[in-house]
Amino acid sequence: MDGNFVYNKPVTGKNNIGRRGDISILGNLLSQSENVAIYEPEKTGKSSLIRQTFYNMRISSMQFCTAEFSLLNVRTIADYLLGLGSAVIKSAQLSVSDYAETVSRLLPQTHFVHDVQQFSDSGRILSLNWDIDDNDIRSLLELPYRIAGAKAQKMYVVLEEYQNIMLTEDGERVCRIQQKVFENLEPELRKWCSFIFVGSRVNAMKEIFEHRKFYFRQVEHLKLSGFENKEIIDQIIRGFMASGKVLDRDLMIGVCKLFRGNIWYINHFAAICDSLSKGYIMEPILLEALDTLISIHEPRFRSTMDDLTTFQLCLLRAILDGHKKFSSTEVIGKYRLNSSANVKRLRDALCKKEIITFDEKDEPVVLDPLFEYWAKRYFFNINDD
Fold first, then answer.
1. Residue 341 exposed, middle or buried by CB count within 10 Å (0-12, 13-18, 19+)
2. pLDDT at 123 (0 to 100)
3. pTM greater than the 0.85 cutoff
C-alpha cells in the first residue's frame, strides 16, 4: 500500500505533478512516429514522465503496445540484442506456441532462433546459434517495425540506461547500424514504431547523442523542465494533511531550494518527516529528517569522494566555491590545479564519473543536489551563510 509520499516507484495520476508541457511534447512526438532521447540524472522523473504520457495517450483512445528493456546489466552486444528482441516479441502478446514461427518468419537468414530449452530456463524468447554479424544486428533493430506493421498496431520501444550500449565490446558498431536503420526505413514501416532512449548518466548520453552525433536528425532530445515550487509544496502539504499534520509553507520553500526541486528526494524527505512527527511539523523535525536522509546516502557519497584524486577534489572544491571558469592564473594557483591543460583533464574526469556536467553556457552543474549539500557542509566544511 502506498503512503502519502511515493518515492519508491514511477508515478502516474494524482501522484504525478508538473511537467504538463513535457508530457504534451513527448506525446506529440510519439504520435508523429519520432524517436526521442531523454537523459537526466537518476531519480528525476524520467520514467514517471514516460508512463504518464502513455497513460494520457491511452485515455485519449490511442491504441499501441510498449516494449521496455533496461540495459542496466548489459555488457555484450548479444545481451543487448537478445534482451531487446525478447522484449519486443513479448510486447506483441503472442502465445508461446507462436514464438518459433515468429522468429523464423520475421528474422530470416539470421542466427537468431527460438530455443525451447533456453526459453524454459531463462525466459528469453531469442537465442543465438552462431556469432553475431551485421545482418543480425540490422534485422533485430528492424524487428519492432515489422512486428508492429504485421499487427497494424503502433509500438513504442523504451530503452532504459541506454548509455550502457557503449560498455559492450563494440557499441559504436551497434549505433552505426541503428542509425542506418533509421535512415533507410521505408515510410510504410517507419510509422509503426518509435524508440525512446533513456539514460541517467547524463554525460555518457551526451557523448552518444551530442558529441559523436549518433542518430543526428533521427532522434529528438527532450530536455525535462523543472518542477514549479508551488506544485511541489501543494502536493507535500496535501500529503501531510491526509495524516492530520500541518507544515508551514515557508519551510517547504527552503526544502525545495535545498533539493533543487528533485521530487524524489523531496518525497523521501517528507516521508521521513511524516514518520517523525505528530501534529504540527516544526523546523527541528525537518533538520532531523535531513540528518536521517543524509545518513542513508552518506556511504555512497563517501565512496564517490574516495574515488577522486587530490587534483579532482581540488577542482570540485573550486566548483562548490562558485567558480565557473577555472583556467585563470588566480584559480589555478588558489586551488593547486597546476595548469589549464590539467584543468581540462580534471573537468573530463569529473564528467566521466557523473559528478558534474556543463550546461549550455559551459558552466558546471553538480548533478546530485544532496551530494552537493553534503560535500559542501560535511566534506569541505563550506558555510554559505
1. exposed
2. 86
3. yes
224 touches 45 (CB < 8 A): yes
Average pLDDT, the chain: 95
pLDDT surpasses 90 at 97: no
The residues that bridge with 193 in the sheet, in sequence order, are: 155
Q: How far apart are CA 130 and CA 119, in angstroms?
A: 17
Would you tell me how many other CB atoms lie within 10 Å of the CB of residue 344? 12
| 9 C-beta neighbours (distance < 10 Å), count | 10
Residue 385 has pLDDT above 90, yes or no: no
Cell of 322: 562558485
Distance CA 329, CA 284 (A): 44
pLDDT digits (tens, 9 = 90+) for 41-95: 999 999 999 999 999 999 999 999 999 999 999 999 999 999 999 999 999 888 8
Helix (H) or strand (E) holding 171: helix 171-184
- CA–CA gap between residue 26 and residue 28 (Å, rounded): 5
Write the CA distances from 57 to 29, 45, 276, 384, integer angstroms: 12, 18, 40, 45
Question: Cβ(36)–Cβ(222) under 8 Å?
Answer: yes
Cα separation of 253 and 255, whole Å?
Answer: 5
Q: What is the mean pLDDT of residues 318-328?
A: 93
**Is residue 159 exposed (0-12), middle (13-18) or buried (19+ Cβ within 10 Å)?**
buried
Q: How far apart are CA 133 and CA 111, in angstroms?
A: 8
Angle of the 134-151 helix axis to the 99-106 helix axis, nearest 10: 120
Percent of residues in the chain assigned helix, strand, coil, to nearest 5: 55, 10, 30
Pairing of strands 112-113, 127-128: antiparallel
Residue with cell 559551459: 362
Backbone angles phi, psi at 25, to 5 degrees: -65, -45
Beta carbons of 252 and 237 less than 8 angstroms apart? yes
Q: Beta-strand (E) ranges in 71-167?
A: 112-113, 127-128, 154-160
